[in-house]
């Protein structure tokens, strides 16, 4: 049985389809931004990348919850 994805990650397939970039690339952009506050990052994604509020909010929430970028 397949578990249903819930929370911010449930937006990821539509984000990739609508904006043409993989979620990992969006997360890298968020982490490389000099901005650190949730709503600043949401506003930046909306203004600079034309992202809708819900998609931007989901990406930022999920990225910040993961913490800093992990070394490969």
From TrEMBL:
Classification via InterPro entries: DUF4287
Name of protein: DUF4287 domain-containing protein
Record organism: Streptomyces rubrogriseus
């Amino acid at each position: 049985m397949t578990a249903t994805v819930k929370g911010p990650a449930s937006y990821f397939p539509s984000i990739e389809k609508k904006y043409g970039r993989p979620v990992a690339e969006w997360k890298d952009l968020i982490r490389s931004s000099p901005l650190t506050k949730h709503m600043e990052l949401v506003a930046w994604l909306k203004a600079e990348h034309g992202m809708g509020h819900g998609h931007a909010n989901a990406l930022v929430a999920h990225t910040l919850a993961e913490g800093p970028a992990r070394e490969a």
